[in-house]
Structures are given as structure tokens and as C-alpha cells.
Amino acid sequence: MAGITGLNKKHNHVLLIRDADLVAATLRQALADASPEERPGLERAAALVESTAAATDGRLRAHWVRSRLASVGFTGDITSMRAIKALRQAEPGLSLLAAVELQKEALAHPE
């Protein structure tokens, strides 16, 4: 799981907060205590968390940008100015510079 913070008009940096390690440890403990019926689902969940934990910060920021664009119904060209406008609509405190930097990050990491 990831969250993005640090976006406002004075600060253009993006700080990624990740708790995948904590979630993975909790899943490993649950697996150790699991019944045979529970194991397949927990093993799948653990694999998904581990793959997310291995994702780079850039990929996570790119995913975040796409999810924020989708949240406001944007389906157009991510390279457009309309995409930047939609991103700022989704995140009203986002500066223009930060939106442009995040757009570049999303372009550098296509899904």
C-alpha cells in the first residue's frame, strides 16, 4: 500500500509512504497460523503484497497518477494539458510544477 503526501503549492516534492513490509509480515504470521483451507488465499495475498513491495517508487507514483486521473473520469491522452488539469482537479492542493513532474513520471512508467 502506498500513499502520497507533500503535495502543495509551496512544496513540489512527492514523499511516498509505504507499509507493504508491515502488511507482508502480518500475512506471513497469518500463514504460519493458518488452517489448510485458509492457506491458498493467504499465499496469494502474500505474493501480491511482495510484488507491490518490489515496485519502484516511480512505478508507484505513476500508478497513483493514473488512479487519480481515473477518479475524476479522465480517459484522454496522459501527455495532454487536459491530463494535468484533471490531475489538479483530483488533487486541488497540487501545484502546477508537481502535476507536470508527476505526469512525466507516469509517462516514464507505462502500465
Give your account of this protein's structure:
The protein is mainly alpha-helical and 111 residues long. The protein has one domain. Helices cover 60% and strands 7% of the residues. It contains five helices and two strands. The protein has a two-stranded antiparallel ribbon with strand order 1-2. The protein is elongated and about 50 Å long.
Q: Write the H/E string, N to C.
A: EEHHHHH
Q: Strand fraction band?
A: 5-15%
Say how many strands there are. Answer: 2
As for the number of domains, it is 1
Count of DSSP helices?
A: 5
Shape estimate: elongated
Q: Ends: how far apart?
A: 17 Å
Structural class by helix and strand composition:
mainly alpha
Rg on CA atoms, Å: 17 Å
pLDDT < 50 stretches: none
Task: Order the strands across the largest sheet as they lie in space.
Answer: 1-2
Q: State the helical fraction.
A: 55-70%
Largest β sheet strand count, sense and barrel closure: 2 strands, antiparallel
On the 0 to 100 scale, the average pLDDT is 84
Write the layout of secondary structure elements.
Blueprint: E1 2-5, E2 15-18, H1 20-33, H2 39-53, H3 57-71, H4 81-90, H5 96-108
Antiparallel strand pairs: 1-2
Helix pairs in contact: 1-2, 3-4, 3-5, 4-5
Notable traits:
111 residues, mainly alpha
Outline of the structure:
The chain has 111 residues and is mainly alpha-helical. The chain has five helices and two strands. Strands 1-2 form a two-stranded antiparallel ribbon.
